[in-house]
User: Which sequence fits this backbone?
């Protein structure tokens, strides 16, 4: 979708699955969003970029509020008024009703959540609309509706409560709200799944199978056999499962994953232990089950940050999460050894779409009165998604 247009989410009509957004140079309106920036994108080599960003920021003053996700580049995060994970940032946006523009340095589903939680007069801007999330794209509206139709045909939908991770599109959050479910984050997945299994006898956890499995098995004490994986690409209409397997399962996991956290393997944990004696390994719960089992600690982005901040001087840490954050943790904790868990460098490529040229372009456009890359969620979908987000806020402690 070209920049300067509005990005919509809807749940009222069937949608074609979105193609995965490809990275690359040049305008390709069929497969890339955001590469056509009206007014011209400053070149990445422009030595004036930092000065221009400061100038545009100053010109906007309190009219703009800039949110920066922990996985953003250093060159971008330096301009954030607040940093955090997706949920914290959505709440921060909602707590700034006077800001006319909320500039979200993160990915598309986060900007959608900010639009749902902010007031109607506020405009949420994503500096590059190509900043999507491969995990969120793994559960499309049509696929999830087809899954639900099957559960209804089998007579078990009434027992199933959907739980969707924050990392999902507004359409999927709206589906969850319509069917009496809740949104969750990596910090409250245990409470969300416990709540869902108290309300119904089964949960449909989407789109991240790993967060769902790690939560069910390691935090709720369920067995791996209690969980089945619904594959939206399997032939037939039962997600590659037998009707009996669906009837017997306590948790139906959606076959989605994070392409960044999914890269870590148990061997990475063994290797780092051999290389750094006494190292402690902390990983995000989006990592595969075997990695989480091999690690010393598992926790959300916020928990990883606070664990390392409070660790003893001289301690060593290998961290299994996005590389921008690990590098900043290493810089902010010079009295500790902080290394990336994998030997291979791996950034989140879509998070990295937000770079300084796009931020400068968005801020300068806003400063001269041109709203670009606004992300909006259609009112009906927003209202239904809000039900699921509010349910998350009301989860029992
Ligand atoms: S780190 Fe993973 S879940 Fe987060 S935006 Fe990137 S692909 Fe999506």
Assistant:
């Amino acid at each position: 979708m070209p920049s300067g247009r509005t990005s919509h989410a809807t749940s009222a009509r069937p949608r074609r699955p979105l193609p995965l957004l490809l990275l690359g140079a040049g305008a390709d309106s069929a497969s890339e969003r955001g590469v056509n920036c009206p007014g011209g994108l400053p070149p990445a080599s422009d030595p004036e970029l930092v000065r221009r960003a400061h100038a545009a920021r100053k010109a906007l003053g309190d009219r703009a509020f800039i949110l920066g996700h922990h996985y953003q580049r250093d060159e971008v995060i330096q301009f954030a008024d607040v940093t955090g994970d997706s949920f914290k940032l959505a709440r921060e946006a909602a707590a700034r009703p006077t800001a006319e523009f909320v500039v979200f340095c993160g990915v598309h589903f986060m900007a959608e959540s900010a639009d749902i939680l902010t007031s109607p007069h506020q405009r949420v801007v994503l500096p590059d609309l190509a900043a999507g999330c491969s995990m969120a794209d793994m559960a499309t509206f049509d696929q999830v509706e087809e899954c639900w139709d099957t559960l209804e045909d089998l007579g078990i939908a009434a027992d199933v409560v959907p739980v969707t991770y924050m990392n999902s599109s507004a359409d999927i959050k709206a589906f969850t709200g319509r069917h009496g479910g809740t949104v969750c984050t990596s910090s409250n997945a245990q409470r969300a799944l416990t709540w869902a299994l108290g309300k119904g006898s089964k949960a449909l956890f989407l789109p991240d199978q790993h967060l769902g499995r790690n939560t069910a098995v390691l935090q709720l004490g369920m067995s791996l056999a209690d969980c089945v994986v619904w594959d939206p690409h399997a032939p037939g209409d039962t997600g590659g499962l037998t009707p009996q397997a669906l009837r017997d399962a306590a948790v139906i996991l959606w076959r989605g994953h994070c392409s960044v956290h999914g890269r870590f393997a148990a061997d990475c944990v063994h290797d780092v232990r051999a290389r750094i004696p006494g190292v402690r390994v902390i990983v995000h719960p989006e990592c595969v089950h075997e990695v989480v089992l091999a690690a010393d600690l598992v926790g959300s982005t916020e928990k990883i940050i606070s664990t390392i901040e409070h660790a003893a001087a001289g301690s060593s840490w290998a961290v299994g999460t996005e590389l921008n954050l690990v590098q900043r943790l290493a810089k902010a904790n010079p009295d500790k050894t902080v290394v990336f868990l994998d030997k291979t460098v791996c950034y989140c490529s879509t998070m990295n779409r937000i770079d300084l040229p796009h931020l400068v372009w968005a801020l300068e456009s806003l400063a001269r009165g041109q709203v670009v890359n606004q992300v909006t969620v259609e009112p009906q979908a927003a209202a239904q998604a809000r039900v699921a987000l509010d349910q998350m806020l009301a989860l029992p402690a």
Remarks:
- The pocket of iron/sulfur cluster is lined by residues 71, 107, 133-135, 167, 258-260, 322, 348, 350-351 (CB under 6 Å).
- Residues 261-340 form a domain with the Rossmann fold fold (CATH 3.40.50.10800).
- Residues 1-6, 9-34 have pLDDT under 50 and may be disordered.
- Residues 379-393 form the longest helix (15 residues).
